[in-house]
Amino acid sequence: EPQLSGDFSTLMGWADAVRRLKVRANAETPLDADTARKFGAEGIGLCRTEHMFFDPARIGAVRQMIMSETERGRREALAKLLPFQRQDFADLFRIMAGLPVTIRLLDPPLHEFLPHSEAEIAELAESLGTDVTTMQRRAADLAEANPMLGHRGCRLGISYPEIYEMQARAIFEAAVLTAKEAGKAPVPEIMIPLVATRRELEITRAQIDKVAQEVFAESGYHVEYDVGTMIELPRAALTADRIAEVGDFFSFGTNDLTQTTFGLSRDDAGKFLPLYVEKGIMPKDPFVSIDVDGVGALVRIAVEKGRSVKPNLKLGICGEHGGDPASIQFCEEAGLDYVSCSPYRVPVARLAAAQAALSAGGSDQTA
Ligand code: PEP
Ligand code: MG
């Protein structure tokens, strides 16, 4: 529970008066959303929905959804998950009280959802009404050598459209529910992960729009919403003009963008990066502070190409860099609209955004 003093509020007030960049938080639990608001977050910039799936009450249904070989089996599992997700989103909409909430559709490394023991395989076989051998084969079929470069993000949503359909339904039902209760509708921003091509966004967006129309017809209620994409692969940055034609916003996923630009696993980099920094091969850890020459160049290309198609395209960043002062300075210069970081970094980000605005303006104003 953050305890905020009067001095803290005064300091933050000064920062807020000069900054241009908005500051949002990465949050998926009510606790994180609450903390984010107390620290002054102006919205949620990234709700990672896969984190919601690990809840012990749900993981069984999640495994069923992944391991079922039929659409019918997957839909049965998804029907169990829908009420959980509806509640998840309704909670976030209520806490954020009309501020923007960016919900990213499922982006798991698939291996985290696969069964890990004989006992789990046996349990799944029983719940899916099949045999252990079938389940073992399915697990082997789904296993990947490089899960972080594999069947994740929108690739999973395109292979199994019913997953994104369920999540979109949960989002729209929660939005309608919140609008009816609060008298004010939230504006969900639905975000598609790991897009590399325009067509991926087109296909997933069409699914989402279809579900929206269904829910609005059923409920007799309409809410505004946006559908946008993460820019976290070099190809997406390089073709951002085409992607912008089908998206309402971009959010730079600089964790994956750093991983894929350097060809360097974000999970293993710590083993030798400190040596690289020590030897001056890299000025800083690029997973902490934006690598301006490589990742930064891709961000600038995407900003320019995206805005050449949509001059007011909403642009943010939601990788770890969104809470790093030097990277926030870069985001200011690149013309982004907001940064999103972990709730506890929101005050630092507000200060850094103010500092960046002052130095970008070349002003001698003192705060
Ligand atoms: C990213 O890749 O920068 C991102 C925000 O998504 P995640 O860290 O969940 O992959
Ligand atoms: Mg990512």
From TrEMBL:
Tell me which positions the record assigns to the signal sequence: none
Name of the protein this chain belongs to = Pyruvate, phosphate dikinase
Shown residues in whole-protein numbering: 524 to 890 of 890
Tell me the residue numbers annotated for binding substrate.
R48, R104, E232, G253, T254, N255, D256
> What family, per the record?
Belongs to the PEP-utilizing enzyme family.
* PEP-utilising enzyme C-terminal domain boundaries: 5-356
What job does the chain carry out? Answer: Catalyzes the reversible phosphorylation of pyruvate and phosphate.
Record: residues binding Mg(2+)? E232, D256
Lineage at the top is: Bacteria, Pseudomonadati, Pseudomonadota, Alphaproteobacteria, Acetobacterales
Q: Which residues form the active site?
A: C318 (proton donor)
